[in-house]
What does this fold into?
Amino acid sequence: MSEEKNKKSEAALLKEKLFRSRKSGCVRVSAEEIRMADDYCEEYKNFLNKAKNEREAVAYAIDAAKKAGFTEYDRKKTYAAGDRVYVNNRGKALMLAVIGKKGTHDGVRLGIAHIDSPRLDLKPNPVYESNDLAMFKTHYYGGIKKYQWPTVPLALHGVIALRDGSTVDVTVGEEESEPCFCVTDLLPHLAVEQMSQVMTKAFNGEHLNVLVGSRPFNTDEESESVKLNVLNILFEKYGITEDDFLSADLNMVPAFKARDLGFDRSMIGAYGHDDRVCAYPALTAVIDAKDPEQTIITVLTDREEIGSDGNTGMKSTYLADFIADLAASDGEQLRHVMAKSTCLSADVNAAFDPTYASAFEANNSSYINGGAVITKYTGSGGKYSTSDASAEYMAYIRRVLDEKKVLWQTGELGKVDGGGGGTIAKFVANLNADVVDLGVPVLSMHAPMEVVSKLDVYMTYRALYEFYLY
Ligand code: MN
Ligand code: MN
It folds into this structure.
């Protein structure tokens, strides 16, 4: 090759200086970083398999935190820089903090992800029998496309609280040796009418009935004998009766395990990436971040998928109350701490999908392997119902990520007026902290199997870790 041909044109050099890079993240990071991303995601897959609802995620996180020296927070104790504490909110939300050298005096650094995912919850009175089949009635949780949930193997997860105050943990359907469940669908041969309906009519919430049994208790001529047999099996295994479903949190979730996806194993297909794919990075970042300047807090919150209402969601006062306690022990007041606090709302964004390209605006979409995606605002319509991060805070986050060589990209949630959605960012902003969304781009978001890139998961971990220690 001649010397001339090797030389870049003036325009090419100027483009490099002025344009944002459009290259895949895979060619912008080292082979070593890709290897580290692959390694990091091995335990992430295990986390996905062990933590399919918020309670299981909290249990996993407490276990990991205890091994890393975290102890349960006691507001009467005084803590020193470097101390590691956690607060368990009803087994469904968790806060993990490392006390900073400056405590709360200059504000705290927050990383907040949610650990609930769309699924089918059992109704309070779920069990019924119809035409010799035993079924569970469900009420879907979060935003789902209902047609995606029939004919997917389902597992039952959750907890049943008995009248005497004891609780029974339930997991059925995860092991090969255990039975699974499913929602049935109509065969195509008889679906002429169904197929001509709009999707929301063809599959509505009352179609999402889960098949759980088909054999009668015995040969006695009794009605509802299949239902009786199912309840008898549950009584023998868990000691529960039909009334106990009323005091239970039971979820039907996809029964399959997280898998590497693609010949190159560059991605992971699994249930519940949204938002465990940010919760795991937020958990490991707070565990790995040693000796922060400001107090850092990872929050694994609940109820995001249904609008964050409830005592374990981000509309609850539980986070502000904890920060108020930390502030009080530093002689500070909550409002002064919040005004100086910064937050990464760690949540997913929709990755550009070439099959559905028309739903996206290509210049402002996030891409698989583009790295952690910063989403300045979410919401819908004319930027309704969202926190729009300030120019100054965006510049600060860019500086942190660029200085620490974290691969990142920007994204909006689809094209203007294409729909919309929200995250917990606005609730943190309403506490008068600076906040922006940062997380992992996801394909098939809210489907029984969602897809993410391993490189993007790792970069989200690195973003949170560097943010905590910057
Ligand atoms: Mn989410
Ligand atoms: Mn979601």
Q: What stands out?
A: The mean pLDDT is 96. The chain has 13 helices and 23 strands.
